[in-house]
Amino acid sequence: MEERFLTTKHVVLMGMFGALGAVLMLFEIPLPFLAPSFYGLDFSEVPVLVGTFIMGPMAGVIMEAVKILVKLVLKPTSTGFVGEFANFVMSCAMVVPAGLIYHRKKTKKVAMISLAVGTIIMAGASIVMNALVMIPFYSNFMPLDTIIAMGAAINPAISNVWTFALICVGPFNVVKGICVSFVTALVYKRISIVIHNIGNDGARRRKTSV
């Protein structure tokens, strides 16, 4: 299995999908009706999910690591690497379960289930990571009361770190997961066919040369 996984084709694909994810990570869309402006929706998980569905969950973790490393080259950290670490953990929380489920049975229905499960797990991970890591970290640069007040301006039920994470961060990541899943479902089959054809063409050329 290790030999089949670490093929030249897979290494190239993991690098390519990870780098594409890093570029997409730079473009964020704020959702002010769900969370304060320092949270932005991006589609960096789309190429990683496509690669995970093609190559498996182990490849997904590697692509997430490549994504973060390339992003740091393109745009240095502004959070002392805490933001990048949190992104890696939360992204893996979606990508790995989705990949594990899909690789048990590769059907369209299972793909949808895997993306839904991945979205739920990512949202749960985002609540914990933000409550325990991200929000306490950002409180070093912005008073915690100000952060909570920004959340309360969106939903008055927010009164502390955990309600902020539950009411703002959780739903935000559910919406992000739905958007990422929708785009992944649109493009996966087309990209998968192209990649498999590349491999088949190479195999045919080798067979012909022999």
Can you walk me through this structure?
- With 210 residues, the chain is mainly α.
- It is built from eight helices and two strands, in the order ααββαααααα.
- It has a two-stranded antiparallel sheet with strand order 1-2.
- The chain is globular and about 55 Å long.
- It starts with a helix and ends with a helix.
- The model is unreliable at 205-210 (pLDDT under 50).
Features:
single chain, 210 residues, mainly alpha, two-stranded antiparallel ribbon, 2 strands, globular, disordered C terminus
In brief, what are we looking at here?
With 210 residues, the protein is mainly α. Helix content is 78%, strand content 2%.
What gyration radius follows from the Cα positions, in whole Å?
19 Å
Q: What fraction of the residues are assigned to beta strands by DSSP?
A: under 5%
What is the total tally of β strands? 2
Neighbour order of strands in the largest sheet = 1-2
pLDDT averaged residue by residue:
89
What are the segments in which pLDDT stays under 50 over at least 5 consecutive residues?
205-210
Instruction: Please count the helical segments.
Output: 8
Quaternary structure annotation: single chain
Write the element-wise H/E pattern from the N-terminal end onward.
HHEEHHHHHH
Could you say which overall geometry the principal axes of the C-alpha atoms support? globular
Q: What fraction, in percent, of the residue positions are helical?
A: over 70%
Task: Report how far the terminal alpha carbons are from each other.
Answer: 26 Å
Q: What structural class do you assign from the helix and strand content?
A: mainly alpha
Give the biggest beta sheet. 2 strands, antiparallel
